[in-house]
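I have been asked to look over a protein record a colleague put together. Alongside the sequence sits a line of tokens, each denoting a local backbone shape. Please read both lines and tell me whether the tokens look consistent with the sequence. I do not need a full report, just your reasoning and any doubts. I have pasted the whole thing underneath without changing anything.
>
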Amino acid sequence: MRLVFNIAWRFLSSSKGQTALIALGIAIGISVQVFIGSLIAGLQNSLVDTTIGSSSQITVLSDDNNGRISNYSSIINTIKETDKNITEISPAADASGFIKVDDSTYPILMRGFELNQADGIYKLKDALIEGALPANKEIILYWSIWIWKKHSLKYYRNS
């Protein structure tokens, strides 16, 4: 083992310029790895929040053909009692369809939910561009900004 260290020392001391370049290369490589590791760790939380922050993490589906869950209140209570780490629960009813504007047809997803419960998941108050969230049993239509701007659509609210 001593022979190996003697050979290495002789190589490093024989060419001081080459030794300095090797040490500089190793230092740059380590600093780049530390920087990228720190960057990934810093972005991880915001990336997770951006990617899945407004989506359900657990979905309970019906096992019959009509897709309805008649006792959803008891299921919600069971889930709340089972795991205290679950912070938001919202029942939802989904249906898909198409909407036609001028000569264009767009696929849409219609989702019905209790607004107060769903706002904790979907953050509708933060995403609101103009107008107000529905009061009582009103209906809200949420279109993508792209469709909204492309067709110069206007928002009207009946009082």
